[in-house]
Design brief:
The complex is a heterodimer of chains A (about 190) and B (about 375). Chain A has about 190 residues and is mainly α. Chain A contains 9 helices and no strands. Chain A has one domain. Chain B has about 375 residues and is α/β, with parallel strands linked by helices. In chain B, about 35% of the residues are buried. Classes of the chains: A mainly alpha (about 190), B alpha/beta (about 375).
């Protein structure tokens, strides 16, 4: 069943009201680990946007032209992961060869996000929601940007919090998860906009 | 369609896709990531032709040139610095935490992170050419305390090693339960360098430590061990100054080596060794230290317990090692200090020694990261 939703609606929803990280809580590990500084978060966020957009496009094509005709849609979990891993490997090799600056900025994050569940999540959601190719790309790109927005906001908050007196038991992951929860509540305020 | 056929098609397609993608990655690796053969010129004279694309540290190791490393290439120890004059690109984010502004101007890089993608011109200290890989055999394993084991290795090939008292070697741990690939860990030699056929190491068990678990739980007498070395700038300077040694636990290793060498040469310098430990069960080789006190003209061994247990019946010094050093050493004049231990202990001792007047250049240390 095709959903007759506009591409921009999907794009904006993916960033704000259906934020893959704050609403669906996917992609938490690298979010917690890397969000200490705005600079590294920017690098990781950009890598995530790039990988999410490309892999949702690639996976849509593999699904539509390989798995559906052969009636093997149940294989999508394995096949999507394998496609993502292979894609990231090759992209890393290309970036390392072609641009040192780009490699220094985001090349080292690429292996980190191969196993980021948000990447697989986006591919699986687009199948569940039966998006067209254009909708899938918009969804992938929007989700990536939403994830990047969340990690940048978190990095900004954590950098400011670096001098606060956090209770010993909550230092590190504890206080970060609490802040993420509060951010999620704030983002709920966007629901109803789209 | 019969279920068996469906099953076969499903498995077949999944394997097929994975195989095709794997082939794609292999092809990409041998084309895009293939940097071909590159030349490395060392110190303006020696030229090596190597396979490009791998980190400098590993590439040189394959050519039997061993740059020191304590973490085995993970970028967490900062020891593998190397001066690269030509060929390296911009600094990688993983190198930056270890390179100071001064070092940046000289082109010093972290060789475990820097990949050799084009022809390189590098400079390495001459002593590194003396570093060799040795095949050795374990001849004895002795437990000194509940967590420190003394390992004696006999050199097989090459059969002799020349080193200075206080230097360290890198111990290769083969693949085993806790590690899928060989790793290297640095340990100071506690034996006297005058016997070049055997070396002794003091290894303390670290919970979940890859090398220490291997040494304490798997290594047996008769096993072969690969080591390389010697490395390190931590050795006794040839002066007349009085010596203050401060080291606890397995930090005793380089100090013991220096003391044995001093005893053998009848070195007349005054020396005090402050050994910090928690309680009596952490003390070891006390008899050997007493023997050295007899042998050397002016050596005092001062063990200090910070948390002696009542059953220890301890009558020696107690408290923090820094307090005891302050109490027992009269002045910082004409003194040299050699420290070995954890970064925290060393920082605290350096502070106290500077306060007592020992100039910073005369304080030498080996920090166990």
């Amino acid at each position: 069943m095709h959903r007759e939703i506009g591409i921009f609606a999907i794009f904006f929803a993916a960033i704000f009201t259906q934020n893959i990280l704050l609403t669906y809580y996917l992609g938490m590990c690298s979010f917690l680990a890397v969000s200490r500084q705005v600079k590294t978060s920017l690098g990781l966020g950009t890598a995530v946007v790039f990988v999410m957009t490309s892999t949702s496009a690639l996976n849509w094509l593999v699904y539509r032209f390989l798995l559906v005709p052969l009636e093997l849609t149940y294989l999508r979990f394995i096949v999507f992961i394998v496609v993502i891993a292979c894609f990231v490997q090759i992209v890393e090799m290309i970036i390392e060869r072609v641009s040192e600056v780009l490699y220094a900025a985001l090349g080292i994050f690429l292996p980190l996000i191969t196993v980021n569940c948000a990447i697989l999540g986006v591919s699986l959601f687009m199948i569940i929601r039966d998006y067209t190719f254009a909708q899938s790309v918009a969804y992938g790109c929007g989700s990536g940007l939403g994830w990047m927005l969340a990690i940048l906001a978190m990095a900004g908050i954590r950098q400011k919090m670096a001098r606060s007196r956090v209770p010993k038991g909550l230092e590190g992951a504890g206080i970060t998860l609490i802040v993420a929860g509060i951010m999620a509540l704030a983002f709920m305020g966007f629901s109803g906009v789209i | 369609m019969s279920p068996v056929l469906l099953y076969i098609i499903g498995v077949g397609v999944a394997c097929g896709i994975t195989t095709i993608l794997a082939v794609l990655v292999v092809v990409a690796d041998s084309t895009i990531a293939n940097y071909g053969e590159v030349k490395i010129t060392i110190n303006g004279e020696k030229q090596l032709t190597v396979e490009g694309g791998k980190p400098l540290l590993g590439t040189l190791k394959e050519e039997k040139i061993f740059i020191p490393s304590a973490c085995g290439g993970r970028g967490s120890c900062g020891l593998c610095k190397c001066k690269v004059l030509k060929g390296a690109g911009g600094y990688l984010p993983t190198e930056l935490p270890w390179i100071s502004e001064e070092e940046k101007k000289q082109g010093i890089r972290l060789s475990c992170q820097l990949k050799v993608k084009t022809d390189f011109e590098i400079e390495i200290p001459e002593e590194l050419f003396n570093v060799k890989q040795y095949e050795t055999e374990v001849t004895s394993l002795r437990d000194l305390t509940h967590d420190i084991r003394e390992v004696t290795l006999k050199l097989l090939d090459p059969p002799e090693i020349s080193y200075r008292a206080g230097q360290f070697i890198q111990f290769e741990v083969p693949e085993y339960e806790l590690s899928d690939e060989p790793v290297y860990r640095a340990y100071s030699m506690s034996s006297c360098p005058s016997d070049p056929t055997r070396i002794e190491l003091e290894i303390r068990l670290v919970p979940n430590g890859i090398c220490t678990t291997y040494v304490h739980k798997y290594l047996k007498v008769g096993d072969r061990v690969i080591i390389n070395g010697p490395y390190g700038e931590f050795f006794l300077r040839d002066t007349d100054a009085d010596i203050i040694f401060i080291a606890g636990g397995s930090g005793m290793a380089p100090i013991k080596s220096m003391l044995l060498k001093m005893a053998e040469e009848n070195n007349p310098r005054k020396a005090m060794y402050f050994f910090g430990a928690r309680s009596r069960r952490d003390l070891f080789l006390v008899e050997e230290m007493k023997a050295l006190e007899e042998k050397l003209p002016d050596f005092t061994f001062i063990p200090a317990l910070s948390q002696p247990k009542p059953e220890d019946h301890w009558e020696g010094e107690s408290g923090l090692i820094t307090d005891i050093v302050e109490r027992r050493v009269e002045s910082g004049e004409n003194k040299e200090a050699y420290l070995c231990g954890s970064p925290g202990m060393i920082d605290a001792c350096v502070k106290v020694l500077k306060k007592m007047g020992v100039p910073e250049e005369k304080i030498y240390y080996d920090k166990f990261a």
